[in-house]
Design a protein that fits this description.
Elements lengths: L11 E2 L3 H8 L10 H10 L2 E2 L7 E2 L2 H8 L12 E7 L13 E9 L6 E6 L1 H6 L11 H15 L8 E4 L6 H11 L3 E2 L8 E6 L4 E6 L9 E6 L2 H18 L3
Antiparallel strand pairs: 1-2, 3-4, 4-5, 5-6, 7-11, 8-9, 9-10, 10-11
Helix pairs in contact: 1-3
Length: 249
């Protein structure tokens, strides 16, 4: 993060061990928290500084304060753990705060480090109403996408970021990954999954993000940005020359 945007980690404040234990208690203790989320809390659980991760908050103090309302019915703590609270917005047309994000604790990843996530208003989850969204398969995918987008793709001038909508074929993300690695791109410290793959080309000073098709966006997405406009044009030309091949359904 500091390589991409110096100063971007200033203001990070970790949650305390007591706060993490208190958050985990209703869910069965510390070991009930996905490991990657525990690492997040230990790094920036109290504050993410200027890095806006969601329309609302991930602050552990806010999550714990909300828990003090003992009168409100909560989702099954064995199944769901809320990690964001939607923002209170006077201009929100629904008349209530934005949606919340939850871990589905009963759907861990195969390595046990992470879990599936869903987005829904807490009260709708309790009542079994409303539409349950899955913005990203896991917390790791959510976090790596937000970090790359906020630090790189949304930087000024924002029109410098190029967007590609590739094929519906489930093999397209892997083809795109292979193509970019042949161009000299490699994985970043954020890691990757089959659904979300950030790549960096240090020589060209460029970042790409591959996102696999989802139910809401049924085509592979690719975003590209280089620090230098000349390098950006070169990479855009190369990708455009192979776009039809990559999009082959």
């Amino acid at each position: 993060m500091e390589r991409w945007k110096p100063g971007s980690t200033q203001g990070f404040e970790p949650a305390t061990a007591d706060q993490i234990a208190a958050l985990a208690k209703p869910h069965g203790g510390i070991n009930a928290l996905p490991r990657v989320y525990r690492e997040f809390l230990e790094t920036m659980g109290a504050s993410t500084g200027s890095l806006r991760l969601t329309f609302g908050t991930t602050s552990i103090s806010s999550l714990l304060e909300d828990r003090e309302d003992l009168q409100r019915e909560r989702p099954d703590a064995r199944r769901y753990l809320r990690f964001t609270m939607g923002e209170e917005d006077e201009y929100n047309t629904t008349g209530r705060r934005d949606t919340d994000d939850f871990f589905e604790l009963t759907r861990p990843t195969s390595d046990g480090r992470d879990a599936a996530i869903i987005r829904i208003h807490e009260e709708d989850l309790v009542r079994g109403k409303g539409e349950m969204e899955q913005p990203f398969p896991t917390f790791s995918d959510w976090l790596r996408t937000i970090i790359v987008s906020r630090l790189v793709f949304e930087a000024d001038p924002d029109e410098q970021t190029e967007y590609y909508s590739l094929g519906r074929n489930p093999e397209t993300p892997a083809k795109t990954y292979d193509f970019l690695t042949r161009l000299g791109f490699s994985l970043t410290e954020l890691g990757a999954s089959s659904a979300v793959i950030p790549l960096e080309h240090t020589e060209h000073g460029a970042i790409t993000l591959i996102r696999a098709p989802t139910a809401s966006i049924p085509r592979t997405g690719l975003r590209l940005r280089a620090r230098d406009k000349a390098q950006q044009r070169i990479l855009e030309e190369v990708i455009s020359d192979h776009e039809e091949e990559l999009s082959d359904d």
